[in-house]
Amino acid sequence: MKILIIEDDLDIQGLLVEYLESNSFDTKAFANPIEALDFLKNSVDIDLVVLDLMLPKMDGFDVCKKIRDISDVPIIISSARGNLSDKVVTFEHGADDYLAKPYEPKELLLRIDAIFRRIKRANPLKTIGDFSIDENKMEIFQDGYLLEFTPIEYQIFSALLHHPREPLSRESIALYIGIEPKDRTIDMHISNIRSKIFDDIKNPKYIKSIWGIGYKFIG
């Protein structure tokens, strides 16, 4: 999961980045909300935004509204402005949750987990290119058709789908799915996956071999 933090207090920003990354979240942080909005417009893999209200160059309420104009990404407000009227306005602008400073980073983590659980229950399918993943049932569909993957094939292809255009080494794939990185084991499973998704190794549409490294999803 990748989280965008918009926070101009660099001490708080650093604390949130360190805490979230220690809990296995990827983070991207900005103090300037205009730069953050530009980044969000060109990014397809942000899963949640943590937004301060007291920001330079643009009011946090306006930032919240502009985020909602371009994305349905969940927004958690993180602000020292804790009065009821501020909360009402942010929810009217599309925020999903509100945390009044000061708070323990653990509380932010719990709020993030709660939002992701709600999203998962409401829409278990995550679409990436021609594929949809139902993580609850551990199923992957290609153009609406269920792929008959073994559990290991599901985990390998899921790892590739969740890191689009990012080369993954055989070792990192093995670590991701919890097996020993033995010679040719990952290659054998990739070959089976390619066969099931009708991917031509000489002219790949979905899985590209990266010489000396491993594989990446390009579809």
From TrEMBL:
Modified residues (4-aspartylphosphate): D52
Keywords recorded for this protein, A-Z: DNA-binding, Phosphoprotein, Transcription, Transcription regulation, Two-component regulatory system
UniProt key word Coiled coil: no
CDD domains: trans_reg_C
Domain (Response regulatory) ranges: 2-116
Keyword Transcription found: yes
A Gene Ontology molecular function term of the record: transcription cis-regulatory region binding
Any GO BP: regulation of DNA-templated transcription
GO cellular component, one term: protein-DNA complex
Segments forming domain OmpR/PhoB-type: 123-219
DNA-binding region (UniProt annotation): 123-219
InterPro entries recorded: CheY-like_superfamily, OmpR/PhoB-type_DNA-bd, Sig_transdc_resp-reg_C-effctor, Sig_transdc_resp-reg_receiver, WalR-like, WH-like_DNA-bd_sf
Gene3D superfamilies linked: 3.40.50.2300, 6.10.250.690, Winged helix-like DNA-binding domain superfamily/Winged helix DNA-binding domain
Name of the protein this chain belongs to: Response regulator ompr
Organism name: Sulfurovum sp. enrichment culture clone C5
